[in-house]
Amino acid sequence: MLNYKEYLSYNKTMKVNDEFIVKIEKITNLGAGIAKIDGFVVFIENTCPEDKVKIKITKVNKNFANAQVIEIIEPSKHRVKPFCPMQKVCGACQLQFIDYDYQLKIKHQITEETIRTISGLDTPILPTIASPEIKNYRRKIQYPISQTKNSGRILAGYYKPKSHEIVNIKYCPIQPEICDRIIEFIREKSFDYGIQGFNEKKHTGDLRHVVIRNSALTGKNLVVLVVNATKSFDRLNDFAKAIYNEFEEVSGVSLNFNSKKTNVILGQKSESIIGEDFVKEQLIDKTFKIGANTFFQINPKSAENIFKYVKNYIKNNYEEPIILDAYAGITTFGICISDVCKKVVSVEENKESCEMAREVVKENNITNVEIHNMDAGKFFAKEKRRFDAIILDPPRKGCTLESLDEAFRLSKKDIIYVSCNPATLARDLKYLTEKGCTVETIQPFDMFCHTYHIENVAIIHKPTIS
Ligand SMILES: C[S@@+](CC[C@H](N)C(=O)[O-])C[C@H]1O[C@@H](n2cnc3c(N)ncnc32)[C@H](O)[C@@H]1O
């Protein structure tokens, strides 16, 4: 095997199908291993730091190449046997072949590198806090549905990596076992009710997705059938009732209507067909209701660690503060921290989440939480009050510059930034520090075990005026 310089003197340039032996140095924020061939970066999926592997180049770009493993010559000491037999084909748990403690270290390293590279900050990154459960932790399941060409058998599972081909998953050890049984029933019985799987290309068929919300508190499940229709019809209603009658663990079945040509899973409108249209969940000492279209963290036990962390920070640093909870979902942060605050104001754009939040506030006898159903940016711009601290928990794309400017204006002291994307967190921290803020710490949490996803909480102080 030639080294890259020797190789170049023969071949002038790296080409697809060329083979090399490399050692994996680290993992990127998208879960691929990185090796360097005389300084030239190659990304190789399904590898672990310290693996020595023989690779075949699959794509060559100007500054990097992609490759696949053709042989593991010396496995890393951190490799373990994946507990899921489908790990290689499914694509949902990219890191499951790496031991869990090392996964936590990798997530710390990814956070650190992303923050340092994008923001230039040397903020301490604390060790990743593990998830209390690393199997059966995923309590929201969203399976795309299709059917086989000839026999019309229903297929339900996750997409293969980088494709829209469904892996027909019968057993998934990261979700509660009851979810597998509900999906199996749907797979087996939909034909009897004349329900067809969705054909994405032709935009035909009935059932597009099955979404299940499982409660860690009660073990109950809300089943949502996402259908290619604008209103319910008898076959669908009968099928929904059959699912409900089959399982005592199913507390309700709803339909969600989505007939658009879109990759967005849920449509705007849902209808409860039988039973309840929510499940109950508990975070710290508060009880929440989660519906078809409400945002709720998929790993509530790990999420609870984040809520406790933020609550402790507020309790230890403020007396009777007024806090703004922005991008609030069902006001999860606001409700969890309400008993250490004078007042909490929350803002969230999703109507159903706000309605659910109002119910939850009432049921927990909370009187100091004010809920606004609005775009966060618009709310910030019109708000006259100032807040002791602001919690920002935006989607993966992070905040807009305008929202950061407004959060900076509205906060008297701190911004607590909760992020599910280290890259946009780093970008937004850079912007805030350029305005004079300092970042005290960044705490990674593992909510999505065995995947490359990381949740972080950054504690940001506004400049003090002397
Ligand atoms: C990462 S989730 C956080 C939810 C909540 N803090 C929690 O932990 O459950 C982001 C939330 O921001 C909401 N959202 C997204 N863009 C928004 C915007 N421009 N204004 C207000 N809310 C927004 C989404 O609907 C979603 O509920």
Oligomer category: single chain
The strand count comes to: 22
Shape: globular
Strand percentage lies at 25-35%
Largest sheet: 7 strands, mixed
Number of helices: 11
SSE class: alpha/beta
Alpha carbon gyration radius = 24 Å
Order of the strands making up the biggest sheet: 9-8-7-10-11-12-13
Low-pLDDT windows of residues: none
Compute the separation of the termini in Å.
Answer: 64 Å
The whole-number mean of residue pLDDT values reads 94
Query: Helical proportion?
Result: 25-40%
The small-molecule ligands in this entry are: S-adenosylmethionine
Characteristic key phrases:
466 residues; alpha/beta; 7-stranded mixed sheet; 11 helices; 30% strand; globular; binds S-adenosylmethionine
Task: List the topology elements.
Blueprint: H1 4-11, E1 19-23, E2 26-27, E3 33-37, E4 40-44, E5 52-60, E6 64-74, H2 87-90, H3 100-119, E7 140-147, E8 154-159, E9 166-168, H4 177-189, E10 207-214, E11 221-227, H5 234-246, E12 250-257, E13 269-275, E14 279-283, E15 286-290, H6 300-317, E16 322-326, H7 332-337, E17 343-348, H8 351-363, E18 369-373, H9 376-382, E19 387-392, H10 401-410, E20 411-419, H11 422-434, E21 438-445, E22 455-461
Parallel strand pairs: 4-6, 11-12, 16-17, 16-19, 17-18, 19-20
Antiparallel strand pairs: 1-5, 2-3, 3-4, 5-6, 7-8, 7-10, 8-9, 10-11, 12-13, 14-15, 20-22, 21-22
Helix pairs in contact: 3-11, 9-10
The chain binds S-adenosylmethionine (SAM).
